[in-house]
Amino acid sequence: xxxxxxxxxxxxxxxxxxxxxxxFGFRHVPRDEKKPMVRAVFxxxxxxxxxMNDVMSLGIHRVWKRIFVGMLxxxxxxxxxxxxxxxxxxxxxxxxxxxxxxxxxDINAAMxxxxxxxxxxxxxxxxxxxxxxxAEAIPLPDCSVDRVTIAFGLRNCTDKDAVLREARRVLKxxxxxxxxxxxxxxxxxxxxxYDVWSxxxxxxxxxxxxxxxxxxxxxAESIRMFPDQETLAQMMxxxxxxxxxxxNLSGGIAAIHSGWRL
Length: 262
Fold this sequence. Notes:
By secondary structure, the protein is of the alpha/beta class. Helix content is 43%, strand content 21%. It contains nine helices and nine strands. β3, α4 and β4 form a beta-alpha-beta unit. α2 packs antiparallel against α7 and α3 packs across α4. The longest helix is centred in the C-terminal third of the chain and has 20 residues. The radius of gyration is 18 Å and the shape is globular. 39% of the residues are buried.
């Protein structure tokens, strides 16, 4: 964290070459160190992840995810790849909406373990393949799925452009990619309240509920470092997606981006 009295603004980049470093919250770290650092964050919070999502968003994430799932156009003959699927909310929503077989994937085995247990309890495990997958190198053939989703996971990836290229590669022609992610608040009056919530309240709640304030400090910082709506839309176009569009949720606190492989 910078020595500045303002904890919201990220520090100046380090003197290391930009090609050698990446963001981990407001810190700049060697690129090859980010994945294990992110893995440690989610291993720490996995058992309390769903509870903390409710706390972080005041429960609104459930509404966002319902909207997101509703946009997928689930059909029984369609196959879903859910990247960074964690505890399974999007995969379960897809199946309950009438979608076909689903691959619940995440780079973090601890998060997937929670998702697998939830799937068993819900009686959905028979329709789900659970896989540890690095979204930057998806172990699936070209043109093999109808939908690719990633919800609140892209900002934690080291090479976001690689994730987008891989998502397009595995989609069938006519397939569609969807990303739900925290984004840039576009209502000026909401911004200061959101900053206080993110940087003062959330770490304290993380300490109380998950016994881990640092992980929730990172999560708040990672949101601020994520590309804004227009930047992410252009990244998707650069990765080869067409008819890219986005929809703001709750004044831009979150946004749903989508693009087609045509």
